Amino acid sequence: MFPAMQDILEIEGLTKTYDGGFTALNGVDLTIRKGEIFALLGPNGAGKTTLIGAVCGLVQPSSGTIRAFGEDMGRHWRTLRRRIGLVPQELATDMFETVLHTVNYSRGLFGLAPDAARVEQILRTLSLWDKREESLSALSGGMKRRVLIAKALAHDPELLFLDEPTAGVDVELRRDMWTHIAALREQGTTIILTTHYIEEAEEMADRVGIIQKGRIRMVEETRAMMARLGRTEAVFTLAAPISAIPEGLSGHSLSLAEDGGALVYRGGDGTGQGKSEVAALTKALIAHKVDYTAIDIRESNLEEIFVNLLENQSDTGEGA
Amino acid sequence: MSLFNARSAWTIYKHELARALRTALQSIIAPLLSTMLYFVVFGAAIGGRMESGLEGVDYGAFIVPGLLMLTLLSESTANGAFGIYMPRFTGAIYELLSAPVGFAETLVGFVGAAATKSLVLAAIIVGTARFFVDYTIVHPVLVLCFVLLVSASFSLFGFILGIWAKSFEQVGMVPSLFVMPLTFLGGTFYSINLLPEPWRSVALFNPMVYLVNGLRWCFYGQADFPVIVSLLMALGFLALCIAIIARIFATGWRLRS
Question: Does the beta carbon of A135 lie under 8 angstroms from any beta carbon of chain B?
Answer without folding.
Answer: no
